[in-house]
Design goal:
The complex is a heterodimer of chains A (286) and B (278). Chain A is elongated. The termini of chain A are close together. Chain A has 11 helices and 8 strands. By secondary structure, chain A is an alpha/beta fold. Chain B has an 8-stranded mixed β-sheet, sandwiched between helices. The longest helix of chain B has 17 residues. The two termini of chain B are 30 Å apart. In chain B, α1 runs antiparallel to α2. Chain B contains 11 helices and 8 strands. With 278 residues, chain B is α/β, with parallel strands linked by helices. Classes of the chains: A alpha/beta (286), B alpha/beta (278). The interface between A and B is large, with 46 and 47 residues.
Chain lengths: 286, 278
């Protein structure tokens, strides 16, 4: 379950035949380096490794478990604590709204979600709530056509709220209606207002924050602002097909006290995976 | 009095942490602080100057040293034979297309004409996006149909510029992952065929340590000439600027400060380092 470099660190601990303070500290340092390289927030890394050290030194291994298995289990459990379990994505009628920073992958992810639900037998509907970005209408429309999904947008409108209202009315037959919105960050207060207004109109069952896997831990404040503005129900981490580990995105998950729902692993519309903690954890630990 | 390790070390940890918290990559933060330590140990300081102030001043200089001497983009434009062919490359969603529109506007303000070459023949809505920008800033867009050869579009744009006395060709390319061998081969081919006068790597200020990986890969693939860092207006420290400069040692020429055509400004090392140290 753990990355190979971490397995080596744990191997070091057990070579000494017993778990002592020095080797536990070495392990904690290795884990810290791996997580800091993956952009996990400094304080979160500190909390995590303090817990691991404390448990490794003070907990008794359960009956029949070797010290080595016990330490591996502790590391895995503490990682799971911050990464979160698999998220339940209900297979039912629902309205979904996607928000996030500029360029994070919302529009592409909207179409991926439509594809996902369509394959599960739920008719999707895509609504272009981005009236700002040049070509946004064309982009989402073209993606909808690729998967033969119903689409609503108003090419010339500058009123995102009205477009979304109209879209919800038009797409009454869609079981899962997915609202794409323009990129925005916390200092663009007029855009944050717009997002709050779209949220009031849609009253989404799920509000997903779409985050690029390579984002730095500065995203912590962003996650906070988005959560305070509309409440975040889940995070979708995109662009995991690169080298980024998603530690920054994880910081956002922890800050917004939510879970990871999906992972984007490429530009194609079928490159969306349900979140599964084990592989995410081993990727983080390098 | 001479500084030794014990004088210096307590501050180094704190400085390294401040870099990490500003999103500078771990290995870059460590290298900067290691170099600082070796520069400081053995330094003579005046009796009255306290070592903390000395270390912090040296730290500021160390950060300034990370940035290669500034490259003046407009001097380059002034001096180079026209048409000047500039290629923009980078990973997905960093702001290449928007940056091209901003640069075109900035060139206009300095009296230079430009065409936008739509080298993203792949992504949904890419052609319409650049078309709309062209319409908004009243600039010609050279494009082929979707799925066409990006090198051919840019080549066309250069031919058009030669025939019509246009000063600058701004070549847009599709975003691509540095891990995608085929797409990185494609960008090498675009360079081979269109022989750009300047290759600009665009990355975003909100990036974390992955900025190191992608800067390295793009630089190895096409030998980047300059960097533009977008989205500096988002509420982030922008440590990616330090990670990128340290890794590929190429000058940052502009920063993107918003989504509008005017939202671009020339990169200034002192200003940026001041921001990081705040
Ligand atoms: N490699 C890769 N590229 C992705 C992924 N998801 C999105 N992209 C690409 O990232 C770029 C930005 O995606 P968009 O969907 O336009 O992002 P956005 O959040 O809608 O952007 P704005 O609307 O401008 O805020 C595009 O080039 C996408 O093809 C992914 O999982 N992997
Ligand atoms: N706030 C802010 N947003 C920016 C800046 N530069 C670009 N953007 C936004 O970032 C998003 C992506 O910009 P694009 O120009 O489409 O990025 P790209 O690199 O061409 O994307 P791909 O072609 O899909 O790889 C858009 O919503 C832009 O408006 C900036 O400096 N500040
Ligand atoms: Mg979009
Ligand atoms: Mg583009």
């Amino acid at each position: 379950k753990l990355g190979s470099s971490l397995k080596n660190s744990v191997r070091k601990i057990v070579k000494k035949g017993r778990i002592d303070k020095e080797t536990v500290n070495e392990l904690a340092t290795d884990i810290q380096r791996a997580l800091l390289k993956s952009d996990v927030d400094v304080e979160l890394v500190q909390e995590l490794t303090d817990k691991i050290k404390d448990r490794a030194l003070n907990e008794e291994p359960p009956k029949g478990a070797s010290s080595r298995e016990h330490v591996i289990r502790i590391v895995y459990e503490e990682m799971l604590e911050i990464v979160g379990e698999e998220t339940e994505v209900p297979m039912e009628e629902q309205d979904i709204m996607l928000v996030g920073l500029q360029g994070s992958g919302k529009t592409t992810t909207a179409a991926k979600l439509a594809n996902y639900f369509q394959k599960k037998g739920l008719k999707p509907g895509l609504i272009c709530g981005d009236t700002f970005r040049p070509g946004a209408y064309n982009q989402l429309k073209e993606l909808s056509q690729r998967i033969d999904s119903v689409f609503y947008g108003e090419k010339e409108s500058e009123d995102a709220i009205q477009v979304v209202k109209n879209g919800l009315n038009e797409l009454k037959d869609s079981k899962v209606r997915i609202v794409d919105t323009a990129g925005r960050h916390s200092l663009e207060s007029d855009l944050i207002d717009e997002m709050e207004q779209i949220n009031e109109v849609v009253e989404p069952d799920k509000k997903f924050l779409v985050i690029d896997a390579s984002i730095g831990k500065g995203v912590k404040d962003q996650a906070n602002s988005f959560n305070e503005a509309i409440g975040i129900d889940g995070v979708i981490i995109t662009k995991l097909d690169g080298t980024a580990k998603g530690g920054g995105a994880l910081t956002a998950v922890s800050e917004a006290e939510t879970n990871i729902a999906f992972l984007g692993t490429g530009e194609k519309l079928n490159e969306l995976e349900e979140f599964e903690p084990d592989s995410f954890i081993s990727r983080l630990l390098g | 009095v001479f500084l030794d390790e014990d004088d210096v070390e307590p501050y180094l940890e704190e400085l390294k942490l401040s870099l990490l918290k500003s999103d500078v990559a771990l290995e870059v933060s460590e290298k900067i602080v290691e170099k600082l330590e070796s520069n400081l140990v053995g330094e003579e300081i005046k009796w009255r100057e306290n070592s903390e102030k000395y270390v912090k001043k040296a730290f500021k200089e160390a950060l300034i040293d990370v940035f290669p001497s500034e490259f003046n983009f407009f001097d380059f434009i002034e001096e180079k034979d026209k048409p000047i062919n500039i290629l923009f490359v980078g990973t997905n969603g960093v702001g290449k297309t928007t940056t091209i529109a901003k640069i075109s506007k900035a060139l206009e303000e300095k009296g230079y004409s430009s065409v936008l070459a739509n080298g993203d023949t792949f992504r949904a809505g890419a052609i319409q996006q650049l078309d709309k920008h062209g319409e908004n800033i009243d600039k010609k867009v050279i494009k082929h149909e979707k799925g066409g050869d990006p090198a051919a579009v840019i080549y066309d744009a250069v031919e058009y510029s030669e025939a019509n006395n246009v000063d600058v060709v701004l070549g847009d390319t599709a975003g691509r992952m540095h891990t995608d061998v085929n797409l990185m081969d494609q960008i090498k081919k675009i360079k081979r065929v269109t022989k750009p006068d300047l290759i600009v790597f665009v990355d975003e200020a909100v990036a974390g340590s992955d900025a190191v990986e992608r800067a390295k890969e793009f630089d190895e693939a096409v030998d980047v000439d300059a960097v533009i860092l977008s989205k500096i207006d988002a509420d982030v420290k922008g440590g990616a600027a330090i990670s990128i400069s340290h890794t590929i040692e190429k000058p940052i020429i502009f920063v993107g400060t918003g989504q509008g055509y005017e939202d671009i400004k020339e990169f200034n090392t002192d200003w940026f380092v001041g921001q990081i140290l705040e």
